[in-house]
Amino acid sequence: MITRFMNLEWKQFFRSSYWQKSIAINVLMVFLALYFITIFLALGVGLFPLLEKFYPEADPFTQVNNFVFYWLLGDLMMRFFLQKLPVMDVKPLLVLPLKKSKIVRYVLNKSALSFFNVLPLFAIVPFSLFLLAKDYDSLQVAVWAVSMLVFALIINFLNFIIESKSSETEFAFLPILLFVSGLLALNHFNVISFSGIIAASVNAIVASPWMVSIPILVLVAIYWINFKMLIGKLFIDGSLKKATKEVAVSDLAWTRKLGAIAPFLQLDLKLLWRNKRPRSTLLMLVLCLFYGLIFYPNPTYQGMPGFYVFVGVFITGIFMINFGQFIPAWDSGYYSMLMSQNIKYKQYLDSKYKLMMASAVLLFVLSVPYVYFGWEILLVHFAAMVYNIGVNTHVLLYGGSFNRKKIDLDKSAAFNYQGTGAVQWLIGLPLLLLPIILFYIPYKFINFEAGVATLVVLGLFGMVFHQKLMKIIVQRYKNKKHEMIAAFSQSNS
User: Fold this and answer.
1) Is there a smaller number of Cβ atoms within 10 Å at the N or the C end of the chain?
2) Pairwise CA distance, residues 364 & 315, whole Å
3) 296, 370 in Cβ contact below 8 A?
4) 251 or 34, which is more confident?
5) What is the pLDDT of residues 118-138, one digit of tens each?
């Protein structure tokens, strides 16, 4: 049965229309995986000599356990933000004579073989070999290695429980950040020495090998909790029954003054307000407005106007970046219906442009208090706003024609990578790096005002030639219309 499940997933992946679009990002992920493997391998090889060097009076085998607490917290944070529960399209299987327990066990067991569980082995195994070469007791070394692997699996399944509970909130990452920060603070100020408690526990397990059964029992318990949670949600009509909520109704009459784009603008505004992921993106703007406080008061960045440009583009363009990079995937759930209507592509895309333009102006106005740190910062923000409206909006609209992945609007935006492909990674280069380069060249050879003027002029050129640019963009969307419809009709699992 396991081989049958694996065969189905393999076929689904390679037969999907978007898998070739993911080749670039998959190659990038392979390089990242090799990078982390190299780091962990180097850590495993060099850990014993490093412990001998920095803690000459301590036993390296005992000293390493003092860092297990920090490893567990770091592992939990990394998994929470990067690891998702392996999924498979189970609806077609639920009408077949298959036990739900087999499907759930397959999904959970598949997660045990994830890269996050294999990665620690590249550090654990070399360090264990060093211990054996130094004539440490082979049984104790084996028990220690097994314990580290069991801890990794406990974090693996614990992460899924935390994700399941926290995904119901708008800012799903805040509880885990507060929890981890609280533990680190308690440990740092010696209120509760968690690092000492865990180190003592690991030392006790190594001294009494039978005690390794305790973390194994904890692992079994957490696995069972995950199993019960998943099997309780595995119903064929589970996605058909929607929670009933009272929606604040507004006819958005003021948008009718905008002419032909009004219906599409109303659709976007309602999408932003009524759905979890776009609404989360909207709420995150409030936090991003304070991004400048990281750089402007910091003496390190004084006299580095390139950072001012980066912050200015980011603050005045945060909405258009978050919203624009997923055009038209926001409408992927009903894109085929939308395209079957008697509408003009230009009106559809122009409504997106007007929304992004209005957001840049609004965010610039809200960022005016940064003038407290100097008039040049306000000037850079103004230039960044003009550049965003004239250049980055068109870059985002054109880049959207390459989107092929569907987005679930009911998922939280926080560290949600659904719908993310090579396009979203590559488009960040012209959005954020190009304006810095365009500013820095005239700034370096002429002066500060010349760099600001360059951004303003380029932005104005984009506004003047907006109609011509839109013709090119609209034609691109028309050429890829049916390809996008076919891709959005498929699952991203």
Assistant:
1) N
2) 8
3) yes
4) 34
5) 999 999 999 999 999 999 999
